[in-house]
Specification:
Blueprint: E1 2-5, H1 10-19, H2 21-26, E2 30-32, H3 34-37, H4 50-62, E3 68-78, E4 84-85, H5 99-109, E5 119-129, E6 135-146, E7 162-164, E8 169-170, H6 176-182, H7 184-197
Parallel strand pairs: 1-2, 1-3
Antiparallel strand pairs: 3-4, 3-5, 5-6, 6-7, 7-8
């Protein structure tokens, strides 16, 4: 059974396949990207929340297929920056701006901010649209702080500046399989898999 995940980001899809491995095997699922499915949808993410944007993506792609469609919207909320970049995390400072530039910009914005005011979180909402139109959503959150410098070689996006006080490292300093167990995306996907187990 093909299940389409509405992304063109290979790093993200690899991470999702790893998190969902047992579920994929159990239901004999072929998890594919938009490109794999031959879908070139023009998705306008004009929602005001992660949930709205995830549903927009899933609904748009569902209009092109009879397969189950999953989509996510995720981002980094920095309390000191009024929860920016938030839903604009992927487009922060411009569509094609590298995460190296984005991460350094955030660090620069917060260079004199004391530890207690550096709180932040990663948020992820997974949306699912079934072939019959039924919709499901699930949320995952991981709390942390903004680090004082870029650290770690694993992960992607804002991982090198997202510090986990209880582990004394950033999410880019832990191995992918460990990160998948605690990450916002891992938590949201686990919640979604529980919902899907009951209906597929």
């Amino acid at each position: 059974m093909d299940v389409i995940f509405a992304t063109g980001n290979k790093g993200k899809l690899d991470e999702i396949r790893e998190i969902m491995k047992e579920f994929i095997d159990r239901h004999d699922i072929n998890l594919i990207s938009l490109k794999d499915a031959g879908i070139n949808a023009d998705i306008v993410e004009d929602g005001k929340t992660f949930e709205e944007n995830a549903l927009i993506k899933a609904r748009t792609v569902a209009g092109y297929t009879d397969s189950i469609v999953l989509a996510d919207d995720s981002g980094l909320e920095v309390d000191y920056l009024d929860k920016a970049p938030g839903i604009y995390s992927a487009r922060y400072l411009g569509e094609d701006t590298s995460y190296d530039v984005k991460n350094n910009h955030i660090l620069n914005e917060m260079k004199d901010v004391p530890e207690e005011k550096r709180t932040a979180r990663f948020v992820c909402v997974i949306a699912c649209v079934m072939p019959d139109g039924k919709e499901l959503t699930a949320e995952g959150i991981i709390e942390g702080h903004i680090a004082h410098k870029i650290r770690g070689e694993h992960g992607f996006g804002y991982d090198p500046i997202f510090y986990l006080p209880e582990r004394k490292c950033t999410t880019a300093e832990i191995l992918p399989e460990e990160k998948n167990e605690i990450s916002h995306r891992g938590r949201a996907l686990c919640a979604m898999m529980k919902l899907l187990d009951e209906i597929i």
